Amino acid sequence: MDIRRYRSSDLPGVLRLCEMEGWPSLAEDPARADRALTAPGVTTMVGVEGGVISGFAQLISDGEIQAHLSLIAVDPACRRRGLARELIVRALREAGGLRIDLITDTAQEFYASFPHFRLAGFRLYPGHTGDSPALDQSKGALSPFGGEGT
Questions:
Q1: How much is the pTM?
Q2: Beta bridge partners of 59
């Protein structure tokens, strides 16, 4: 398994993984996705096996102290082989930082396997007035701003 920085030519493989996970935000607009994966302060790493993108991680960092794991996905056929862990470790090494914050709704046990502290957190949706994010039916995505898209 080769783990390296994301290249624009990796985009179809990353979008395939997002679609497998049911994450529409990147696939909705591939040009926007490429910009998001290569934006200043963003480090995106990919795992490549046999020329196929098997996993990716997107990390945002100040380069010195704080980092945030924004996205990580591994092809189901490649799970339980240490790829996600290595993507996280390599992304922080490349980006710089001392710690990673993240939120998860599906992988608590995995993240608990790292040295960590559990902290309370919030996902902020400025401008939203409802009890939960609105579902934008036109795009099939959660819309934190009541119909503006994710």
A1: 0.77
A2: 43, 69
